[in-house]
């Protein structure tokens, strides 16, 4: 992978230069091209910012897996003063101060992680004791973002936070992960302000796990998620199959939760025993069906029906909507779209050693093993939802599974189309050209074709759709993505026309920004798209 270097976006250590790794004060970026004025607002990004820490014990602590890097939030402020070109400033901050300090002092991390490799020589007694010992550090919470989350305190100063001369309109900012906790972040300075549990929203939400990706109702702004409780009968409040579920689906009238094939063993106790998720997930079993649950969200009827399909794994759902049959309008199907994987191999690929272009780890991922780590855009149909019998298993139909070379993960859509039929999905693709991602995809689900943005040795992150307020078409808008130029070792905020994926502008940084997970754009004017 020498022709596509990406080490600067991966191997950022805590002791690295502060060039762009932890910018606590705004830094003006160099803008090139013409970023449209309707992009003004704030773009937040999450992700790990460093995975190696020099400790007082004389050793270097290392987070082995990409999902276990030290969480940070990045903030791009996009401004446009009257009759002047767009300006962009950037700041970032790690949000794991307590965790980082403990690692520096002790040389280890005592909390549950996603995939940390533990000491195999640790005694049975010590393992048993750690199950019952409460972790002494706050968790690493930094996968997704919620802006102005309903149900949490919005008490703040009388004056809304100011950002470079205008009110951001952002009252609260929270980071989330696969657990029942969320962290409050100062929307402007990015300082961590506290951690809360879902039980503070409702006492029944006492289980330890939840989806990092909640879904927002585009009309009311209400956020939907699940809370998973362990035990002899593992409970999602309405059913009992335990799995690692990263995101859910939402249609106009229903919540759809698919328990795909990432089943957690021993009723969740394996997470406590192994102190991580990955070792607690059972090997992929293609003979076990994925199960889809449909829950009423309008009239409080609870679980309405369930369906099954062939086994698969998924990180990111895309969208769901309801369609009446043209031949019989009284019958309604639920259409569900997502990025699907053939098995669980992707979870094992995302160790840092495998992502470094200069390392040897990625050499293990060739042929079918590499192809198994690439997703396909897929559509399922849950037929005749209104007539489905409660308690009887229906069959979910796989309508299409797109070719992997025109598909993507980290999918996003125009948020105005959440819960209703959309045509275009955007994401980052892996076409075997680098040890990580290598392009941005625009997928047309009407004819299952894609167009792709690609620049040699430039590794993009999740594209965020920003709608043109004067646009009429679904794809009237922009895509914002943070891209690493692997040759120069510097990152830039890329702005693409969403119609044709042509670059319209960029804001260049002084150095590299670590590869991240997800983001949220809050426009200066207009409606925030919510959790998608």
Describe the secondary structure blueprint for this structure.
Blueprint: E1 27-28, E2 30-33, E3 41-48, E4 52-54, E5 60-62, E6 71-79, E7 87-94, H1 97-106, H2 124-132, E8 144-147, E9 162-163, E10 166-167, E11 173-176, E12 181-185, E13 192-197, E14 209-210, E15 215-216, E16 223-224, E17 227-228, E18 249-250, E19 254-259, H3 269-274, E20 290-296, E21 303-309, E22 313-324, E23 332-341, H4 345-349, H5 352-355, H6 367-371, E24 376-382, E25 393-395, E26 397-401, E27 409-412, E28 424-429, E29 439-444, E30 449-453, E31 458-460, E32 464-467, E33 477-485, E34 490-497, E35 503-508, E36 519-523
Parallel strand pairs: 21-25
Antiparallel strand pairs: 1-7, 2-35, 3-6, 3-36, 4-5, 6-7, 8-11, 9-10, 11-12, 12-13, 14-17, 15-16, 18-19, 19-20, 20-21, 22-23, 23-24, 24-26, 27-28, 28-29, 29-30, 31-33, 32-33, 33-34, 34-35
Describe this structure in words.
The protein has 532 residues and is mainly β. The protein has one domain (7-523). 7% of the residues lie in helices and 34% in strands. Strands 2, 31, 32, 33, 34 and 35 form a 6-stranded antiparallel β-sheet that branches. Strands 1-7-6-3-36 form a 5-stranded antiparallel β-sheet, with no helix packed on it. The protein has a 5-stranded mixed β-sheet with strand order 18-19-20-21-25, with no helix packed on it. InterPro entries: Carotenoid_Oase (IPR004294). It holds the Pfam family RPE65. Keywords: Iron, Metal-binding, Oxidoreductase. Fe cation binds at residues 213, 316, 518.
């Amino acid at each position: 992978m020498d022709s596509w270097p990406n080490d600067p976006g991966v191997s950022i250590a805590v002791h690295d230069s502060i060039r762009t790794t932890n910018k606590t004060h705004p830094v003006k970026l160099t803008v090139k091209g013409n970023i449209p004025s309707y992009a003004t607002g704030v773009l937040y990004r999450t992700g790990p910012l460093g995975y190696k820490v020099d400790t007082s014990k004389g050793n270097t602590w290392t987070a082995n897996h990409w999902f276990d890097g030290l969480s940070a939030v990045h903030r791009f402020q996009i401004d446009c003063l009257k009759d002047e070109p767009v300006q962009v400033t950037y700041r970032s901050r790690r949000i794991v101060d307590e965790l980082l300090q403990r690692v520096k002092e002790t040389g280890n991390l005592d909390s549950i992680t996603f995939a940390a490799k533990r000491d195999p020589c640790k005694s049975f007694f010590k393992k048993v004791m750690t199950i019952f010992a409460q972790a002494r550090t706050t968790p690493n919470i930094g996968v997704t973002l919620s802006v102005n989350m309903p149900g949490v305190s919005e008490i703040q100063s009388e004056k809304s936070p100011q950002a470079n001369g205008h009110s951001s309109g952002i009252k609260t900012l929270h980071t989330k992960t696969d657990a029942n906790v969320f962290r409050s972040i100062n929307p402007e300075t990015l300082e961590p302000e506290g951690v809360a549990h879902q039980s503070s929203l409702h006492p029944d939400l006492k289980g330890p796990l939840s989806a990092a990706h909640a879904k927002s109702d585009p009309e009311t702004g209400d956020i939907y998620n699940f809370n998973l409780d362990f035990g002899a009968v593992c409970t999602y409040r309405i059913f009992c199959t335990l799995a690692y579920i990263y995101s859910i689906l939402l249609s106009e009238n229903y919540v759809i939760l698919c328990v795909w094939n990432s089943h957690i063993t021993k009723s969740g106790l394996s997470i406590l025993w192994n102190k991580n998720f990955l070792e607690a997930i059972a090997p992929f079993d293609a003979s076990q069906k994925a199960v889809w649950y449909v829950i009423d969200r309008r009239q409080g009827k609870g679980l309405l029906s369930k369906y099954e399909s062939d086994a698969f794994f998924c990180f990111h759902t895309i969208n769901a909507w309801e369609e009446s049959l043209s031949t019989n309008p009284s019958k309604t199907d639920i259409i569900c779209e997502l990025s699907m994987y053939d098995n669980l191999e992707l979870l094992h690929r995302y160790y840092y050693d495998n992502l470094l272009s200069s390392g040897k780890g990625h050499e293990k991922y060739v042929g079918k093993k590499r192809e198994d780590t690439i997703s396909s855009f897929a559509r399922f149909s849950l037929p005749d939802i209104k007539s489905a019998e409660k308690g009887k298993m229906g069959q979910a139909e796989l309508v299409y599974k797109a070719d992997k070379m025109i598909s993507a993960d980290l999918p996003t859509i125009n948020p105005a189309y959440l819960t209703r039929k959309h045509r275009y999905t955007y994401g980052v693709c892996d076409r075997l050209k680098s040890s990580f991602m290598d392009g941005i995809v625009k997928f047309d689900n009407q004819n299952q074709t894609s167009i792709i943005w690609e620049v040699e040795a430039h590794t993009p992150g999740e594209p965020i759709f920003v709608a043109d307020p004067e646009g009429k078409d679904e794809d009237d808008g922009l895509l914002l993505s943070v891209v690493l130029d692997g040759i120069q070792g510097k990152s830039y905020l890329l702005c693409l026309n969403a119609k044709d994926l042509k670059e319209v502008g960029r804001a260049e940084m002084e150095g590299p920004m670590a590869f991240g997970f997800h983001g949220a754009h809050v426009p200066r004017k207009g409606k925030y798209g919510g959790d998608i």
